């Protein structure tokens, strides 16, 4: 219980620091959203001060000194009310986030979990059969796949499977003629549009999980308790899973916590290449449009998800390896 309370206190302190940085960072950017709107209007003639104030009022630009803005921002965080988006006016930030979040969680979240599970199991098998083809094949292929960046793999798949062969759609999360609804037809159409982004994320991330688990487990296989278990005549599967893999998985588990926390942030480059309307695509447009309310909401979601994932991993560490509690 003391271990959990210590981790919880650290979590709360880190969360406050992250929330404060989330307030400061967007305000360090040069210019304001009102300046961008006025720059467009100024092409037709000079813009008066009254017009500037009207634009600022319409966009809901924060007023008062920095401390007053900070207090107002904390109130928004507590009430989950981040106001109206500057870029997608007059839609609210809550509407935009709630519309984009399911696509990112289903796509990036499911693929991240699959990549972790598949990569970890392959890494365990490769380490246990080290020196054989079962070790060489996944190791070489994992090293090869991990060298390709997300956007390059996405562009290759988009070009060959989308534009050349016309096997998969090239943009969007569903067809233009389909209406989003909880129906089987929409689910099939959405799944069809998600195949290329899912393959991109799976291919580029699988190699890292394979190599990480393999290397960690090879080090574990040389420990005395593994040798003792083998000498006692235990089954190979029991030694590999319950003794070696259980301890070797801890470094991979840390990486999985970070990856799972980053699910909410989406994969910005992949979503941008495929025009997939997830959180990453929304974040890119928010930064381009200097959309403070939308940026703050998205950054806060990403930060909180990473902190929560790390907190859960810390607790799981204490369960898998009781030595970490001390």
TrEMBL record:
Where in or outside the cell it occurs: the entry states: Cell membrane; Membrane
Transmembrane portions of the chain? 100-128, 149-170, 190-211, 253-274, 294-320
**Keyword Transmembrane helix recorded:** yes
A Pfam family (short name) is BPD_transp_1
Membrane topology per the record? Answer: Multi-pass membrane protein
GO biological process entries: transmembrane transport
State the InterPro entries in the record.
MetI-like, MetI-like_sf
Q: Does the keyword Transport apply?
A: yes
Give the main location. Answer: membrane
Q: Which GO terms describe its cellular component?
A: plasma membrane
Keyword field: Membrane, Transmembrane, Transmembrane helix, Transport
* Annotated ranges, domain ABC transmembrane type-1: 101-313
> Matching CDD domains, A to Z?
TM_PBP2 (cd06261)
Q: Which family does it belong to?
A: Belongs to the binding-protein-dependent transport system permease family.
Q: What is this protein called?
A: ABC transporter permease
- Highest lineage ranks of the organism? Bacteria, Bacillati, Actinomycetota, Actinomycetes, Micrococcales
């Amino acid at each position: 219980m003391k271990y959990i309370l210590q981790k919880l206190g650290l979590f709360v302190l880190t969360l406050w620091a992250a929330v404060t940085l989330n307030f400061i960072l967007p305000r360090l950017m040069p210019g304001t959203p009102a300046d961008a709107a006025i720059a467009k209007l100024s092409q037709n003639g000079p813009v008066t001060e009254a017009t500037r104030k009207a634009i600022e009022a319409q966009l809901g630009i924060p007023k008062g000194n920095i401390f007053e803005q900070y207090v107002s921002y904390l109130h928004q965080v507590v009430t989950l009310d981040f106001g109206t988006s500057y870029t997608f006016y007059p839609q609210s930030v809550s509407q935009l986030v709630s519309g984009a979040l399911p696509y990112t969680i289903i796509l990036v979240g499911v693929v991240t979990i699959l990549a972790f599970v598949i990569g970890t199991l392959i890494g365990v098998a490769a380490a246990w059969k080290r020196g054989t083809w079962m070790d060489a094949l996944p190791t070489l292929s994992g090293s090869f796949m991990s060298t390709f960046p997300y956007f390059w793999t996405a562009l290759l798949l988009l070009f060959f499977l989308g534009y050349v062969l016309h096997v998969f759609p090239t943009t969007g999360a569903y067809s233009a003629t389909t209406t989003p609804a909880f129906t089987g037809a929409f689910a099939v159409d959405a799944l069809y549009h998600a195949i290329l982004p899912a393959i991109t994320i799976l291919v580029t991330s699988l190699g890292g999980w394979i190599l990480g688990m393999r290397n960690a487990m090879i080090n574990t296989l040389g420990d005395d308790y593994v040798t003792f278990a083998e000498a006692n005549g235990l089954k190979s599967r029991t030694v590999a899973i319950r003794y070696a893999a259980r301890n070797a998985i801890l470094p991979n588990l840390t990486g999985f916590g970070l990856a799972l926390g980053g699910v909410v942030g989406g994969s910005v480059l992949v979503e941008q290449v495929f025009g997939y309307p997830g959180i990453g695509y929304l974040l890119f447009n928010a930064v381009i449009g200097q959309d403070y309310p939308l940026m703050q909401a998205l950054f806060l979601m990403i930060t909180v998800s990473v902190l929560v994932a790390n907190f859960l991993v810390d607790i799981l560490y204490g369960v898998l390896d009781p030595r970490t509690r001390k």
